Amino acid sequence: MNLNEAYKLLGVSENDTNKVIKTKYRELIFKHHPDSSDNDEASIKKAQLINEAFDLIKKDKKKRPRGTRGYGANSGARKTYSTDKDFSNFYEYDYYSETDEKKDESHHFRGKTINNAYTSRDIFESPKDSVIRTDGFIKLARGKFLWEPDKEDFECFIHSIILESDSLLKDVELAVGDRLNEDINLESTRNFFRMRLFHLLAKDYVNPIFSLRKILKANQKDENGARVYEIKANLATVGVDDYYKRLYSLRLGDNLYPSKLKNNRLQVETNTGVTLGNLTIEDDRMLYIVIPILERKLARVKIVVRDINNNRAKRPYRINVGISLFLKIEKEVLEEEIKLSKFEELSKEISEEIGTVLKEYEEAIKE
User: Residues annotated as region Disordered (predicted)?
Assistant: First the structure.
């Protein structure tokens, strides 16, 4: 394929801006991506040609002198300075055959890796920012990648963990084979273990202190370097019952206290020991950060009633109590826990837990 054929295949010209070329490329590669077309042979071939064309254009753009938009010195194109001249950050969507599925393909994604993680996982991009609207995901890479909030969308991370949980359980079922106990409810048993496995895998890929500092800015920093982070949460209910009355009795500024940490939920109570239920953290990402921090006692905690929205205008009555969960983390903890080597030690322990859960699943489903 030559350069003219590459431009023709993408439906762009050499004078189009980088943004136009990138948008057109993404449209075509998603349209013909094997994951979007049931691995149709023609689409696989088309995707290969689109990637080849895009590579040619990208290399051509990099070779050009700064300020030129035409091809070569004698193209006759008007010279102009382009602020959109860097093609180095283009996405390259590769398709994966079944034989490649378990391989590490980290050369398509630059991220921190965790050597002690139990298994590799897929890295996805959601084309939500593209002109194409879809609920699908595009696979970019596979490897033992740490979740980095600034590089990987949270919804893509969760999708990755769900798929890996299902894959690990499926491997156990295949290993059990004809020894499978037909008297058990396999779907119910699988769902129980899937939830346990999901949370362990999330912990295996999320460094809570690293992610916290990526997502939030500290509200306060003291003279010793300790930092305070505010996480917004709430307690809510609909209808008048005992729980409604407990929430209704709260006042702005009231201090609440952690009473139980179980099943990846934080239960709180009043200073008199009245249970108020589990906090719902407003930012879903923070659940996978806050719970590990509390489990490992990496922070001191303060919980305060931030606001109260009590709607009694019509039935059923509704009440929503806004909560500020403050985490105070010492400087030494911040500096130590952010190290990848420190997280590798923890990951080794988590991987052992994952192995134990999979062994328990095997025992639960076989005769």
Answer: 61-80
With b meaning 16 or more CB within 10 Å and e meaning fewer, what string describes 73-107?
eeeeeeeeeeeebebeebbebbbbeeeeeeeebbe
Tokens of 40: 């149709």
**In CATH terms, are 3-95 and 213-337 the same topology?**
no
**What does CATH list as the number for 213-337?**
3.30.70.2330
* Alpha carbons 330 and 226: distance in angstroms, whole number: 4
Q: How far is CA 142 from CA 100, 120, 146, 202, in A?
A: 10, 6, 12, 16
Query: CA-CA distance, 37 to 43, in Å (whole number)?
Result: 7
Q: Are strands 227-238 and 318-329 parallel, antiparallel or unpaired?
A: antiparallel
Tens-binned pLDDT, residue by residue, of the chain (367 aa) = 888 888 888 888 888 887 788 778 777 766 665 544 455 667 667 877 887 888 788 878 766 654 444 333 333 333 333 333 333 333 333 333 333 333 444 445 789 999 999 999 999 887 654 433 335 788 889 999 999 999 999 999 999 999 999 999 999 999 999 999 989 999 999 999 999 999 999 999 999 999 999 999 999 999 999 999 999 999 999 888 899 999 999 999 999 999 999 888 999 999 999 999 999 999 999 999 999 999 999 999 999 999 999 988 888 889 999 999 999 999 999 999 999 999 999 999 999 999 999 999 999 999 8
Domain boundaries in the chain?
A: 3-95, 110-206+350-367, 213-337
Residue 321's closest CA among 230, 228, 254? 254
The residues with which 123 forms a beta bridge, in sequence order, are 141
Distances (CA, A) of 51 to 58, 68, 91, 99, 148: 10, 24, 10, 20, 27
Cα–Cα distance, 138 to 303 (Å, whole number):
40
CATH of 3-95, one of 1.10.287, 3.30.1490, 2.60.40, 2.60.290: 1.10.287
